[in-house]
């Protein structure tokens, strides 16, 4: 997959979350800033899968940082 820009990645995560998830775009901005754009791009499938499983962003971030 080709890398996405910061804005594209924020939109990708926001639209990939299941219906009823409470996250806004600013939450994904913080996640990407914490992970770094390159890492967030590399891990985007994993992040989307974990969102689909109902994991909270804090848990996803902790797992990916470990």
Descriptive account of the structure:
- The protein is mostly helical and 66 residues long.
- Helices cover 70% and strands 0% of the residues.
- It is built from five helices and no strands.
- The protein has helices at 6-16, 25-35, 37-42, 44-52, 57-65.
- 17% of the residues are buried.
What is the general shape?
globular
What does the average pLDDT come to? 93
What is the distance, rounded to the nearest whole angstrom, between the alpha carbons of the first and last residues? 24 Å
Strand proportion, as a percent range, falls in under 5%
SSE order, one letter for each helix or strand: HHHHH
Determine Rg (CA atoms, Å): 11 Å
Taking the sheet with the most strands, its summary is:
none
Q: How many helix segments?
A: 5
Helix fraction by DSSP (H/I, runs of at least 4): 55-70%
Oligomeric state of shown chains: single chain
Query: Uncertain spans, ≥5 residues at pLDDT below 50?
Result: none
Structural class: mainly alpha
According to DSSP, the number of beta strands is 0
């Amino acid at each position: 997959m080709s890398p996405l820009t910061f804005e594209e990645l924020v939109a990708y995560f926001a639209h990939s979350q299941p219906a009823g998830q409470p996250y806004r775009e600013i939450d994904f901005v913080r996640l990407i800033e914490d992970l770094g754009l390159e890492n967030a791009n590399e891990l985007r499938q994993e992040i989307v899968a974990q969102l689909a499983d109902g994991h909270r962003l804090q848990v996803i971030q902790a797992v990916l940082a470990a």
